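Researcher: Here's the sequence for the chain we discussed earlier.
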Amino acid sequence: MIMSGLCDVCADLTLQRPANDPQGNTPITVVSHHESLAALKKCFDSKSCAVCHLFWTGITGKLDDENIAAYLENKIPLPDGTGLVLVIDWQGPAPESLSDPRQFIHRWLVFDIFASLVAGTLLRGRDSSWPGEDQQRTITAQKWLENCYEYHPRCGGKDPMPMPTRVIDLGAPEGKSRPRLLITNGVKGRYVALSYCWGTGRGIHKLKLRTETLYDFQVAIDEQLMTRAHREGLQIARELGYQYIWIDALCIIQGSDSLSRDDWAREAIRIPQVYGNAELTIVAGRSEDSRNGFISATYKPAAPPASLRCVLPGVDQSTDLWLGLKRSRDIGPTDQRAWCFQESILSRRIISYNKEQLSFKCREREDHEDGHWNFHGRYDGWYDLITNPTFPLFAEPVFQRWYELTMEYSKRSFFDPTDNFAALSGVALQFQKAVALKHSNTRYLAGLWEVDMIGGLLWRSARIIDPSQKPLCQPTAVSGPSTGESIVIAPSWSWMSLVGPIRQGKGEHDIPILVHEKDSFHCFPANPNGKTWSSHDWHPSMVKYEDLPLPFPLQAKGHIRKLRCSKCPTFTYHGFSAWQYKREHLVQIAILMEAAENQAVDVVNSTTYHQIIALGQFDLDQSHPVECWALRLTTHEGLLLEQRAEGSFARLGVFVITMANHAYFDSPRAPLMSFSLI
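Model: Thanks. This is the structure I predict for it:
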């Protein structure tokens, strides 16, 4: 039931916006409300006041039942009997990194504020997803864009840039031309790109570019036959005054024949230029299916907005000031999709239709419709890695940034796991330029960089940090005769061989492994020059599954010992290792490892604990082997392996040597040997 009435307390309120001070700032307004939480609840129970209904719903969503009961029973008295107050920040929230001006309040709850269109230019926070709010949506987006054009030189201005192979030409913004496909031949122009989730199932796009429609599309495209997300992308481009838009399904030839697959492969590796040259990327964040569109939000707040009277400077009559529950700033389904990952990283500017509100992001800052903003320019390592060889943020910025991105990418989902390399190819190609700024060796090998191979090999399941994370699993085919069966999409030593979230690099609980720490390495390339791990190439531009150079062995030399998985539970071991993960996580995830040549340990105690050689974490959660091989990579860590043939091993997981057993891998019984990792 939607209430429109007000109680006596709310009916007597008229919010007066004060004039700006000499510095141009508007003072915060504090207005008394009900004298207690009990009084607010009484009004809520009476179902007579829309504002109190909104406030009570917000409070019960913020505090647990125990805290609410304590306030109602006055076990937690409000300071000095102040009662409830409304605090209106007319300029919008401060950036989240700064202290909040409401910190002096005992407990506070944030609501969005927004007003009618006349007043809306003075107040942040309006919800542009409401029906009929197209004008407000456009005003908000244009304001963000103009601010970026004027103050953010790192974002590239609005000069025409080389356009993709094909774009959709909408005609002059003021005209009513039918859209058509334009073959650009490298011409420069100002265009936008669309980033969205296709969805699943058949018939996702009734209209898409095919070899047989390539000519017809250049004459005209029937807009009414387009998927709804495509139509809405065209609508937004027109509203913002753009003539050209790039949409993958309409600009890359779709199909399973060889000509279509070749076109897809060529265009897939041009993604960095497509999104990097686009003046703006439109992200359909809130939609998991392109058939549903994305302009209108589908979320429903727990309580509807309510209004109070408000008087603004220079306005004779009062207007309605609307209050709404705080909206989420989560992006939505596109933030879970692998293909959308590199699109968001490579874009210069993004207007995102998020789960519950509109947002804008560029290389300098991020703005949300509710007024929140963050300045992140100088901390955005991606841009500086490519343009600034002296970028000082990390000791090894290239690889640390790479590991941060691969960890994030590994969380994303695929409809077809064979797209794994294609969906990261743009980022990999750009990173290759960054690697070249500091290293002569820029070889990319199936998701790892040869110059940092040891660090790259030491990835692991993210469950060691958070056991609630999804376990790693084998990829499965989604089409063809082997549909539903496990498939090989990468060598076992690559994190891209499995599906699921990983840990890599140097996190809070991880052992830092960097290129300059070579003195701690115990595994090396078997190539005579001591630098090349493989005689084969796996370039970032290799994106078609059928063209991947599998199998792809690494030729290495190192010390390998045979270990046995202990029958003793991990919680019985209290020795030390270099792993700094939480003990409760180790107990749940790690396996105790013993020397296979020794008698099995029945009980871990003060006389047997030294027989625990290592703690192991297997990549896959299913039953682990009784015995496996262990390859030491660094002073502390190494890989668990399965022998496939003489001198050939596949990865099973990672291990850390316990503090009492580092000499075990230096034993004469573990001579230096050459082998293949497959």
